[in-house]
Amino acid sequence: MTVTVSATGLTLRYGGTRALDDVSLTLGTGVTGLLGPNGAGKTTLLRVLATAVPADRGSFTVLGHDPGSAAGRQELRRRLGYLPQNPGFHPDFSAFEFVDYVAILKEMTDRGARHREVRRVLEAVDLSDVRGRRMKRLSGGMRQRVALAAALVGDPGFLVLDEPTVGLDPEQRVRFRELIAQAGEGRTVLLSTHQTEDVAMLCQRVVVLAGGRVRFEGTPAELTARAAGRVWSSAERDPGARAGWRTGTGMFRNVGDPPEGADLLEPTLEDGYLLTLGDGEREAVA
Amino acid sequence: MTWHVAEEDLCAYARGDLAPPLLWSADTHLTACAECRARLAGVSDPVAVTDGWERLDAELDAPRRGLCEGLLVRCGVTDHSARLLAATPVLRRSWLLAVTFVLAMTVLMVRVADSPGLFLALAPLLPLAGVAVSYGPVLDPTYEMAVVAPMHGFRLLMLRTCAVLGAGLVLNGLATLALPGYGLRALAWLLPALALTATGLALTPRLGPVLAPALVGVAWTTLLLIAQATTEGTPAPFTAPGQLGAAVVAAAAGWLLVRLRDRFDTTPAHAPFTGFTHGSAV
């Protein structure tokens, strides 16, 4: 893996809480999923890497640029596409105007070239037909796609997407996955999500964050392998299981340390993820 | 067709050197005139022609500018700056109407009471509040995207500050004209307005975009109450020495603001009332 993003010892406190606690990670080209329960520090990590907030301690580079200096931060931002968790919009702007506004913030001052770029990214997210419609009249899924288009302006080498599929219906989510997969070709994408299925379907690598610390870094297959031999089926919930739930078959799926002779099941990414978290953190996921 | 693009302009168009408004005129004409298109093909290489059509296509596809944005462009503001200004929350009609209403009511009360004190006290606070709500995570819905953009945050702040100050000072000025009986004394709000706005901005990197202007507003009100209670006649801030003091504060705060310009480049993680609570941040 060619390293494009490298972070060492990132720490950030909010009041008495360590939102990030000595986080070190490396990312390469392709889509990396950032999994974690609520309050794990995912958004904080993304905001630090996107240079929205500075870390108290630690350092990182993106595509060789260190945001520690004003010049480095500027160069990093020129290569950054960022879709925040709750992207805000000027409601009276049309989709075209909004993306145009973001393009201006990205230093595209030539009107003709900028408008061509706006049309390109709106076409990439399949929104050319509604480019003149006001943001307040677009559906939630369309707004998310406009925000993704805005993030793609200028063909950034590092794309940071904070829970882009939240609130989307299944059809929209599939559409969004296609778009993110396309975006991940030739660039580094860091995707924060609660959805293990997003990671299983999209990501070449996965980072699990909990309590502000990195609990796992590797491929989805490696995370899934953590649950090999630790998932079993039973008629009742096994009290010894770390987590268990009734499935559509009426049987319980248990995750943890199986009793002898247990009816072992094929593990999934979600099983590996649950086993990576501590007890309190699993409850946060549930 | 009653006219055709001049040979010289056509060559400049093919080279990409033709400047507006001749460029727009040629673009529009070429869409309708096959003869000029054929002449253009003769004087230019295919790549340049394709670029020209793409440019024309993009131009025709561009949305119409809004009222505020169009007005700014007509006043000579570049199109990209106009769009940035049009996104300034405080330039919205609702804010301008609210400020106009407050000023109209204040002028009315001043006329009834036959004293400009209320107007002079209130007028400096309006630009301060306007600038405070034009930038920052609390009221700018796209703040998070703007702060990570390569455009320097201080430049965006200054653009918006100029726009808000411009609009606010014009409204205050109109209100001043409605009080002709007080002469130059009715203009004594101007320097305090600049001082309060500059001080509020200079304190923002340290205290956040809500607390800083709020504290400055409270300090101004307290100063006026003390001045009112301790002096007879015109309160000190509106006398000649008071105006000089306001000018000094404005200059010092402006200097500090420029010194701190890089601090507007990121969201201060620990500044109070930045709009990002601990819960929403993680």
From TrEMBL, chain A:
Region forming the signal peptide: none
Example GO molecular function: ATP binding
Pfam families: ABC_tran
Residue ranges, annotated region (Disordered): 238-260
Keyword annotations: ATP-binding, Nucleotide-binding, Transport
Family per record: Belongs to the ABC transporter superfamily.
Protein name: ABC transporter ATP-binding protein
Organism classification: Bacteria, Bacillati, Actinomycetota, Actinomycetes, Kitasatosporales
Automatic annotation (TrEMBL), chain B:
Segments passing through the bilayer: 95-112, 118-136, 157-180, 186-203, 210-228, 240-258
InterPro entries for the chain: Anti_sigma_zinc_sf (IPR041916)
Keywords, alphabetical: Membrane, Transcription, Transcription regulation, Transmembrane, Transmembrane helix
Protein name: Zf-HC2 domain-containing protein
